[in-house]
Amino acid sequence: MADSLATRASHAAATTDEGAAGLARRAYRAAPWWARVLAVFVLSRVVSTILLLSFADTQAANPWTAAKPGYATYAQIWDGQWYYIVAVSGYPATLPLDTLGHVGQNAWAFLPVYPFLVRAFMVVTGLAFSPVAIAVSVLSAAGAALLVYRLMLRALPASSALFAVTLFCVAPLSPLMQVDYAESLFLFLLAAALLLLLQRRYWWMLAVLAVASFTRPGVVAFGLALAVHFVVWYVRRGREGFPVRERVTVAVVTVGSCALGFAWPIVAGLVTGRLDAYTATELSWRADYIGYQKLVPFTAWIQGANWWLKGGAGLLVLGVVVLLFVLFLTSAWARRLPLDLRVWPASYAVYLLAVFFPQSSTFRVLMPMFPLLGALAVPRSWVWRVGLVVVSIAGQWGWLYICWWVNGYDWTPP
Predict the structure, then answer these.
(1) Which of 13-22, 48-57, 316-325, 354-363 has the lowest mean pLDDT?
(2) How many domains does the chain have?
(3) Residue 25 domain flag
(4) How far apart are the first and last CA of the chain?
(5) 388: in domain
(6) H/E stretch holding 133
(7) Band of pLDDT at residue 29, cut at 50, 70 and 90
(8) Which of 6-20, 291-305, 334-348 has maximum average pLDDT?
(9) Model confidence pLDDT, tens digit, residues 166-214
């Protein structure tokens, strides 16, 4: 009798444990896709918040904050201060010049959609800049995560699509999604534009790109991606499968995307009366490395390679990086993604090679290549996936230490 009671008790306990696990599994399966994505997003933000607060707790006094700043204050350093200036003061009508007549660093390098949106919510809520900016960034990042899932789901099974979102949310630079930077909003707009491209909703895509072009630089690369899209679509479908009306639509949207990429420099030129106002402003940030020079396309990476590593070693490293990138784009994992999601990172890479000088913010400007995370989500090995998450979180710590945490005279801006 005692053995029977013990057996029943053991069976009941096992059933209870099994029932709890089964209940959790059933709850997960029953949860809508957006709830799963947001759960991943919230958990990732908990991790990034802990890391940011730990660095804030050890932060010494610096040009932006006192020692041990609070979260909102710490989120406003670096470019966050520039966005604050734009939000409360707008843009200068006259460019600052040094004694030699070179344009100095100024607010024209920071596009208006994000700071003006924050300003609008400041007026409505009566709150200070940084809390509103953080809210806009976090909400934009959550929206981006949802759209990334919908993008990945077009080529990957649901579990792999969710893991791609996980990589997006825990990526080494993901703390930028919750500070006073425009990256989250731009990623949201970019993900929306890519999804509309896959859906062949070109006019809506152009409307989204119009907003994105005043949020962060890089929309001109979308014009190149659309040109490739046009050619591939024409070759695959031929004249009959790619009717004249659709061809005209894609062509017009392609030209429009390219034009939008130059819209902000034109605005800056018109307001300041100097046609090169925007490019001269951007070049002022690389002057500390190579001095003041004209913008010559496709030379900055060569200059940067020779600055970082002398004697040809930098050029060798640059060549290897470009080769590895091409190999990854053509790998079996990457080929699982829709062609447009591979053409966009390639086009954006060409844009960066044309205009960007490699420095500590290079990792930040690579964030728009997020569709390639889908390739890393193809393998289903738990060892692979757990390893990537661990490496990504460790990368967050490393990036915060090198780029965000201010250590005396710091020349490694994020």
Answers:
(1) 13-22
(2) 1
(3) no
(4) 71
(5) yes
(6) helix 129-152
(7) confident
(8) 334-348
(9) 999 999 999 999 999 999 999 999 999 999 999 999 999 999 999 999 9
What φ, ψ does residue 267 adopt, rounded to 5°? -60, -45
Question: What are the CB-based long-range contacts (under 8 Å, 24+) for 281-287?
Answer: 281/95, 281/103, 281/105, 281/106, 281/108, 281/109, 282/109, 283/103, 284/102, 284/103, 284/104, 284/105, 284/106, 285/105, 285/109, 285/357, 286/357, 286/359, 287/102
Q: How far apart are CA 251 and CA 202, in angstroms?
A: 10
Residue 412 lies in a domain: no
* Cα–Cα distance for residue pair 59/405, rounded to 1 Å: 7
Residue 120's domain comprises: 32-404
Instruction: Specify the DSSP class assigned to residue 372.
Output: G
Nearest of 373, 335, 341, 349 to residue 197 by alpha carbon? 341
- Tokens standing for residue 327: 């190999």
Query: Using CA atoms, how far apart are residues 3 and 79, in angstroms rounded to an integer?
Result: 70
Percent of the chain with pLDDT over 70: 94
CB 118 within 8 A of CB 133: yes
Name the token pair of 370.
Answer: 């997020």
Query: Residue 361 carries which DSSP code?
Result: T
Domain assignment present for 15: no
The residue length of the chain stands at 414
Q: Which residues contact 105 (CB under 8 A, 6 or more apart)?
A: 96, 281, 284, 285
Which residues, in sequence order, are bridge partners of residue 70? none
- Residues 31-46: tens digit of each pLDDT: 899 999 999 999 999 9
Give the three-state DSSP class for 97: strand
CB 332 within 8 A of CB 189: no
